[in-house]
Specification:
Glutamine Phosphoribosylpyrophosphate, subunit 1, domain 1, six-stranded antiparallel beta sheet, seven-stranded antiparallel beta sheet, 3 helices, alpha+beta
């Protein structure tokens, strides 16, 4: 089954996976210690599509944000400014709204706070959903477009990235993982290499 891009958010470990039929020539790369970015590979064809390159993970002093587009940055900025995680997520998703492409692709995002809480959200053409989660929860751009419990058997960022990359959904491209590490967060990349 093809569910598009998806996130799994939990209190201790979370992950994001790019799945794509249209733009498979992408990878996740680290930009410093606190940011992971999705972008085209060197052999990717030229495109003017604004939705294929973005920060997919940002860590702030108040928590970590993950998601499938440019809404990750304002959510991280709001979280860093002290907004409650739920508000940072809801305001950023609502402000940027679903993607205005041929599919009305939803925006998905999650936050793991520095005090152990986790939130997941999606903005679709017909709804904005933001929920606090106590266990790993999945939301995807297609088919699985409402938060649902998901079995994530990972304890580290690297395990989470590998597990969602290998999940039984079609067209895996790359993945990112976030895990709690003492008082901070560890990040990991899985590009299927």
């Amino acid at each position: 089954m093809y569910i598009g891009r998806f996130i799994v958010v939990g209190p201790n470990v979370s992950a994001y996976r790019v799945s794509s039929r249209s733009f498979p020539n992408r990878q996740v790369s680290a930009r410093g210690e606190d940011t992971l970015t999705v972008g085209p590979t060197e052999d990717a064809p030229e495109t003017d599509n604004p939705y294929i390159a973005y920060n997919c993970v940002r860590v702030t002093e108040n928590g970590a944000v993950l998601g499938n587009g440019s809404h990750v940055d304002p959510a991280a900025e709001k979280l860093a400014m002290g907004y409650p995680a739920r508000d940072a997520l809801a305001q950023s998703l609502l402000a940027l709204d679903y993607e205005k492409d041929d599919y009305n692709t939803p925006r998905i995002a999650g936050i793991m706070t520095d005090d152990g809480q986790a939130f997941i959200g999606i903005v679709r053409k017909d709804a904005l959903l933001v929920e606090q989660v106590e266990e790993p929860t999945l939301v995807a751009t297609y088919e699985e477009d409402a938060p649902t419990t998901y079995t994530l058997d990972s304890d580290t960022a690297a395990e989470a990235a590998a597990e969602v990359y290998d999940a039984d959904y079609e067209h895996a491209v790359c993945a990112a993982g976030i895990g709690r590490d003492g008082d901070g967060f560890e990040l990991a990349v899985e590009n299927g290499e």
